C-alpha cells in the first residue's frame, strides 16, 4: 500500500516534468525565443557587467548624495505603508465576516481590496503619472494604493482566521462593538497584521526603486540619471546600496517578527 | 420565583425549516435544567434565543420580567449582563492571559472608554482572582489561555460567566470536548454554582446519564419540539427512546 503510493507519486513527478518541458518548448516556439542564441549572449553579458559595473574609487564620492536619495525612498515607503495600514485596518474590520457592521460596507471594502490589489504598482504609477505629473506625490500614491489593496485583503483574512468564537462570547456578555474589536479581535490578530505590514515595507522599498524611475523621484531617479548618462560605475554603487538596504530591512523585520509572533 | 418563561417560541433561520416549534416551558430561580436531544434538534438555537444571540420569530420569552424579544439595544446589553454563557469550545481569546479573559466578563457594565482602556476596579480584579481560586486555576492567572488544557480553559470560561454576576448561566455542551475526568470537574463546578451561589443553570448535554445525575429537571427536544419536560427521575427508557428515536439512541450510547 505504502510502496504503491510512493510509486504513484514518482509517476506523477515524471508526468509533471514532461508537461513542464512541453510547455516551455511550446512557449519558446510561439515567442520565437532561441535557447542557444540566448545562452550564447550570456558570456558577453557577464563580461560586460564585469568590466563596466564596477564601483570605482571616485564613485564613492557620490555616496552621500546617493544615501540622501535612498533615505528619501525608504521614508516614502514606510510612510506609504503606514498610512495604508491605518486605512486598511478600518477596511479590514469592515470587510471581515466576524467584525463587519453591515453588508454594504463589507462589499465596498472587499471591492477596494481587489480593485487596487489586482493592478500592479508599476501600472498605478503610470496611471497616476498622467494626473499628478512627475513628482514624489505620484510615487507615494502609487505605493499607497497598491499597499492599501494588499493589506486590506491580508487584514480581512487575518481577522477571519482569528475566528468568531471569542467575538460571540463577548457579545453574549453584553460587550459593545468597540470593546470586542479592541479587546478580543485586535489582540488576537495584531501580531499577524504587524508581520504583514513589515512585509509590505520590504516590498515597497524594492518597488520604490522602480516607481522612482517612472516618477522621477528618490533612488529610482538617481539610478535612471546615472544610467542615462552612461555612468555605469555609479549605477553599480546605487544598485549595491539598494541591495544592502533591502537585506538590512529584511533582517530587522525578521527579528521583530520573531519577537511578536 | 419564576426566572424564565418561554411561551410558544418559534424560530427558523430560513423559510424552509422550522428549527424550533411552539416551545414552552418555565424555569424557576435556582433550578439546574438540562436540555437533551439528538443533533440538530435545536438545543443551541434555544439557548441563543434566550439571550437573543439570534432573533426570535414567534412567541415570547420573559426573563426576569423583561420581554426579551422586544428589548432595545441598551436594554439588551443589560439583559446580557444578567445571563452568562459557557461554550463547547470555550470561546476565549487564546493570545490573552487567563485573568484578562476573565475580566472580559465585566464589559457589559462598562462604557466604551472604560472598556477600550481596560479600566477595571480593584474589586473586579479581586473578584476575578477569587473566582479563579475557587475553580482551582489561580496559579495560571498570568498564563496565556492557549497554554492551558481544555478542562482548564473551560474553567476560565466559567469564571468569565460568573464575574458577570449573572442570574442565569447558559451552557452549550460544556463538556463535549473534554475527557471524562475534566467533564466531571466541570459538571461538579456547574452544580455547585447553582447550589452555593443560587445561580440558575440551563445546560445543553449530549450524555443522557450526565443529565440524569446532575439536573433537577430535564427538557427533551426532538425536531424543535419539547417532547419531555419533567424531573430527572421520570426520564425512563421509554421517554429517552421517544426523544432520540429508538435506533439513534443505540448509536449514541455505544
Ligand atoms: N446560524 C444558522 N443558520 C442557519 N441554520 C442554522 C444556524 N444554526 C443552526 N441552524 C440549523 O438549525 C438546526 C438546529 O441547530 P442547532 O445547532 O440548534 O441544533 P443542536 O440541537 O444544538 O445540535 P447539536 O447537538 O449538533 O449541537 C439545524 O438544522 C441547523 O442546521
Ligand atoms: Mg448545538
Give the gist of this structure.
The complex is a heterodimer of chains A (261) and B (254). Chain A contains ten helices and no strands.
Can you put this structure into words, describing what you see?
The complex is a heterodimer of chains A (261) and B (254). Chain A is built from 10 helices and no strands. Chain A has helices at residues 2-31, 35-52, 63-95, 103-117, 121-132, 136-162, 165-173, 177-215, 218-228, 232-260. In chain A, helix 3 crosses helix 6, helix 3 packs antiparallel against helix 8 and helix 7 (165-173) crosses helix 8 (177-215). In chain B, strands 6-7-8-3-9-10 form a 6-stranded mixed β-sheet, with helices on both faces. A 4-stranded antiparallel β-sheet of chain B has the order 2-1-4-5, with helices on one face. Chain B starts with a strand and ends with a helix. The model of chain B has no long low-confidence stretch (mean pLDDT 93). At the A-B interface, helix 7 and helix 8 of A face helix 2, strand 6, helix 4 and helix 6 of B. The site of magnesium ion has 4 residues of chain B, from helix 1.
Amino acid at each position: 500500500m505504502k510502496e504503491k503510493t510512493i510509486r504513484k507519486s514518482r509517476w506523477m513527478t515524471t508526468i509533471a516534468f514532461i508537461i513542464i518541458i512541453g510547455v516551455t518548448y511550446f512557449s519558446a516556439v510561439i515567442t520565437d525565443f532561441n535557447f542557444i542564441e540566448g545562452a550564447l549572449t550570456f558570456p558577453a553579458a557577464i563580461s560586460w557587467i564585469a568590466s563596466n559595473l564596477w564601483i570605482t574609487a571616485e564613485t564613492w564620492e557620490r555616496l552621500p548624495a546617493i544615501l540622501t536619495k535612498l533615505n528619501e525612498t525608504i521614508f516614502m515607503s514606510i510612510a506609504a505603508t503606514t498610512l495604508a495600514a491605518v486605512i486598511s485596518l478600518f477596511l479590514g474590520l469592515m470587510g471581515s465576516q466576524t467584525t463587519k457592521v453591515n453588508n454594504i460596507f463589507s462589499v465596498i471594502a472587499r471591492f477596494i481590496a481587489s480593485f487596487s490589489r489586482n493592478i500592479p504598482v508599476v501600472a498605478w504609477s503610470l496611471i497616476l503619472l498622467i494626473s499628478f505629473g512627475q513628482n514624489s506625490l505620484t510615487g507615494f500614491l502609487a505605493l499607497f494604493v497598491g499597499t492599501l489593496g494588499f493589506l486590506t485583503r491580508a487584514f480581512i483574512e487575518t481577522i477571519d482566521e482569528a475566528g468568531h468564537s471569542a467575538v460571540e462570547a463577548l457579545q453574549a456578555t453584553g460587550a459593545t462593538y468597540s470593546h470586542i474589536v479592541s479587546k478580543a479581535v485586535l489582540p488576537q490578530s495584531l501580531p499577524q497584521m504587524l508581520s504583514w505590514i513589515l512585509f509590505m515595507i520590504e516590498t515597497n522599498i524594492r518597488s520604490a526603486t522602480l516607481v522612482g524611475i517612472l516618477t522621477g523621484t528618490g533612488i529610482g531617479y538617481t539610478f535612471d540619471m546615472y544610467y542615462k548618462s552612461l555612468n555605469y560605475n555609479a549605477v553599480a554603487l546605487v544598485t549595491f546600496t539598494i541591495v544592502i538596504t533591502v537585506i538590512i530591512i529584511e533582517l530587522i523585520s525578521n527579528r521583530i517578527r520573531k519577537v511578536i509572533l | 420565583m419564576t426566572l424564565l418563561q418561554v411561551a410558544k417560541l418559534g424560530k427558523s433561520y430560513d423559510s424552509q425549516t422550522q428549527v424550533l416549534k411552539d416551545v414552552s416551558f418555565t424555569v424557576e430561580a435556582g433550578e439546574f435544567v438540562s436540555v437533551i436531544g439528538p443533533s440538530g434538534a435545536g438545543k443551541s438555537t434555544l439557548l441563543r434565543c434566550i439571550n437573543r444571540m439570534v432573533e426570535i420569530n414567534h412567541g415570547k420569552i420573559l426573563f426576569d420580567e423583561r420581554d426579551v424579544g422586544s428589548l432595545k439595544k441598551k436594554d439588551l446589553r443589560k439583559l446580557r449582563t444578567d445571563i452568562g454563557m459557557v461554550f463547547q469550545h470555550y470561546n476565549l481569546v487564546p493570545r490573552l492571559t487567563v485573568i484578562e479573559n476573565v475580566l472580559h466578563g465585566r464589559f457589559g457594565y462598562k462604557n466604551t472608554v472604560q472598556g477600550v482602556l481596560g479600566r477595571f476596579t480593584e474589586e473586579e480584579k479581586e473578584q476575578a482572582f477569587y473566582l479563579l481560586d475557587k475553580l482551582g486555576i489561580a496559579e495560571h492567572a498570568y498564563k496565556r489561555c492557549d497554554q492551558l488544557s481544555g478542562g482548564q480553559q473551560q474553567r476560565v470560561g466559567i469564571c468569565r460567566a460568573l464575574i458577570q454576576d449573572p442570574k442565569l448561566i447558559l451552557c452549550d455542551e460544556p463538556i463535549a470536548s473534554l475527557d471524562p475526568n475534566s467533564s466531571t470537574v466541570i459538571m461538579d463546578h456547574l452544580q455547585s454554582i447553582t447550589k452555593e451561589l443560587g445561580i440558575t443553570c440551563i445546560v445543553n448535554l449530549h450524555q443522557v446519564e450526565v443529565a440524569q445525575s446532575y439536573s433537577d429537571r430535564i427538557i427533551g427536544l426532538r425536531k424543535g419540539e419539547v417532547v419531555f419536560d419533567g424531573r430527572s427521575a421520570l426520564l425512563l427508557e421509554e421517554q429517552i427512546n421517544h426523544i432520540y428515536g429508538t435506533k439513534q439512541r443505540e448509536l449514541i450510547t455505544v
